[in-house]
Amino acid sequence: MSKKEQVKKPPMMKGPMGGGPGGATPVEKAKDIKGTTKKLAGILSKYKIAVIVVIIFAIGSTIFSIVGPKILGNATTEIYTGLMNKINGTGGIDFTKIGKIILWVIGLYGTSAAFNLIQSYIMAGVAQKITFQIRNDLIHKINKLPMKYFDKKTNGEVLSIITNDVDTLSTGLNQSITQIITSICTIIGILIMMFSISWEMTIASLIILPISVLILKNVIGKSQKYFTQQQEYLGHVNGQVEEVYSGHNIVKVFAREKEVIKEFEKENYNLYKSGWRSQFLSGLMFPLMNFVGNVGYVIVAILGGYFAIKGRITVGNIQSFIQYNKQFTQPIGQIAQISSTIQAMIAASERIFEFLEENEEVKDIENPVSIEGIKGNIKFEHVHFGYDPEKTIINDFNSIVKDGQKIAIVGPTGAGKTTMVKLLMRFYDVNDGAILIDENNIKDFKRGELRKLFGMVLQDTWLYGGTIKDNIRYSKPEATDSEVIEAAKAAHVHHYIKTLSKGYDAIINEESNNISAGQKQLLTIARVILADPKILILDEATSSIDTRTEQQIQAAMDNLMKGRTSFIIAHRLSTIKNADLILVMDQGDIVEQGTHEELLAKEGFYAKLYNSQFEDCNDEIE
Fold first, then answer.
1. Residue 317 CA: distances (Å) to CA of 68, 76, 295, 312, 527
2. Is the pLDDT of residue 509 over 80?
3. One-character DSSP codes across 408-435
4. Where does 349-445 show beta strands of DSSP type E?
5. What is the rounded average pLDDT of the residues 489-494?
6. Tens of pLDDT along 175-203?
7. Buried b (16+ CB within 10 A) or exposed e, 6-27
8. Bridge partner residues of 138 (DSSP)
9. What whole-number distance in Å separates Cα of residue 431 and Cα of residue 423?
10. Cα 193 to Cα 209: distance, rounded to the nearest angstrom
């Protein structure tokens, strides 16, 4: 990871990651809910048998669970009737009958639990299979996307799709489908059971429902804005911590600790205020709902007592009704909670599908040219190119490069030097004209085969977590240990490696910050030397290396470039005096080309660049 990437702030993620009413944040809504839902249904249809089984077992689990309180009420009625008979001297409690009822209830609840376990197991498998396949599809897709896609998307955005969005989809699939089925069945089932006991008590219970909804709406409406503020201020606090501690040494050098603390305290206080208000209002919801629920229980108890005296219902029925009344609001709350999970799941799915539907690189031709015997002659024929088709930055560029020649590309920062390299390797295709290698259009090669012709050493080094040996061998996995060592010697990094306790088996950590920038650059050079490519691309290859190290490897680089076509992107013009051809770029266009002496003789743009650097050197010496 480059230094620029390390200090870049990740985008704030949206989704159910804590912080909203009942533990859910305000979620991002999908732009095309209908279309995304249809695509999700298409994926689920591949597992339709499993989903049908899940639905059946979810319904079964709910039915067995709902019937329990009604049967348990019969046991209460038996106990009450037995006690009354005993008091009146006409009989006693029939424990055998009560025991059978209890065994029935245990059996029902046990069956419900078993059904629930089975449907959870099956749905978890379906969700994981879908997310497994989607992750595979995303990784395959990412390697087929053109470079222009990554120019308009940050690394954080792409990473968010592959990690956060896939996890959100997995969680939603695992929880929402069975939860919705269970909740709807529970609401319908409880209503049926309540009406079967007493329609008057059921109506009285339902009158309380609009009051509960009104309270929920008002509390959530007021708390939502504070939860939104809380997330915003949390982002500010996290951003400041990341920013300050990534440059902590600079803060200390300029003695800015007090100002940093003052700024943090300000942001932290804003977070405290919004967090306190949001949590207070969210916490207020439960006691208010309990109060309303208790009022409902009082009404039910009074009505139930009245109907029991009249002989219209039994004591056991009152107990069952109170249990159903208590359970009735739970699935409603669950559906409200699931709705935010579903919103997040659909929004995440939409981003995943958009990624998977992005235009891929143009496919390779059916009968590609082989790279066998390629020497490295390169020809640019009337090349026109622009990242934006309406804005051409390279106009009618023509040049012939013979194999073994050293080509330097120079110009001020932002002139477009790296663009030429991207065109050569078909990271982008020219808008018009052609680039030929040994008289073959580069479009006639397979991209993967074409890129095997090139070896690149970039300004920003890339090493991965693993051994030094494996990092060098990345360009040629089948290379022997002796070949790796020879490449390291040619790059003048062998001596450094031998000073490490584990030598070539020393581990580079994931951030590769346990070795210096110069040593990292030397290892990437060794990697290219091992690959033994036909064409070399050196993009400021020695920019991270000190003067002494640069002198050590210059001879090795010169030997490496012999017999190979080499493109050197350089700021220091003194390093490319002996180039066979120098391409001078300015504002995305080739303004001059020729040898060092020819360009100096023209007294044009290159001469000005060279002289300005030469004068700077003299100033430093003086």
1. 12, 9, 19, 10, 80
2. no
3. EEE-STTSSHHHHHHHHTTSS--SEEEE
4. 378-385, 394-401, 406-410, 432-437, 440-441
5. 84
6. 777 788 888 888 888 888 888 888 888 88
7. eeeeeeeebbbbebbbeebbbb
8. none
9. 10
10. 17
Q: Which parts of 278-413 are beta strand (E)? A: 378-385, 394-401, 406-410
The token pair at 410 is 């120079």
Residue pair 406/561 in contact (Cβ under 8 Å)? The answer is yes
Of 463, 451, 404, 406, which Cα lies nearest the Cα of 426?
A: 451
Torsion angles phi and psi, residue 446, rounded to 5: -70, 140
Does residue 450 contact residue 506 with C-beta atoms inside 8 Å? no
Percent of the chain topping pLDDT 90: 6
Polymer length of the chain = 622
Helix (H, G, I), strand (E, B) or coil at 576: helix
Smallest Cα–Cα separation from 419: which of 411, 410, 431, 428? 428
CA–CA gap between residue 112 and residue 242 (Å, rounded): 49
Predicted confidence at residue 78, as pLDDT, reads 76
Q: What is the pLDDT of residue 231?
A: 67
Rounded alpha-carbon distances, angstroms, from residue 380 to 171, 384, 396: 52, 10, 9
Q: What pLDDT, on the 0 to 100 scale, is given for residue 5?
A: 38
- Give the contacts of 140 (CB within 8 A, at least 6 positions apart): none
Own/partner contacts of 352-358, CB < 8 Å, gap of 24 or more, are: 352/134, 352/138, 352/161, 352/165, 352/166, 352/169, 353/36, 353/39, 355/138, 355/141, 355/158, 355/161, 356/137, 356/138, 356/141, 358/141, 358/145, 358/149
Residue 535's H or E segment, with its range, is: strand 535-539
Tokens at 618, concatenated: 């003299």
Are the C-beta atoms of 494 and 529 separated by less than 8 Å? no
Q: What percent of the chain has pLDDT over 70?
A: 86
Instruction: Tokens for 365, please give them.
Output: 């031709």
- Reference 209, options 331, 341, 59, 316; nearest CA is 331
| Residue 204 in tokens | 């009285």
Q: Tell me if 134 sits within 8 A of 169, measured CB to CB.
A: yes
- In terms of Cα–Cα distance, which of 418, 336, 387 is closest to 150? 387
Locate 285 and state its tokens: 């919801």
Task: Name the residue with higher pLDDT: 604 or 282.
Answer: 604
Rounded Cα distance between 576 and 595, Å, is 10
CB atoms closer than 10 angstroms to residue 282: 19
Give the confidence band of 28 by pLDDT, cuts at 50, 70, 90: low
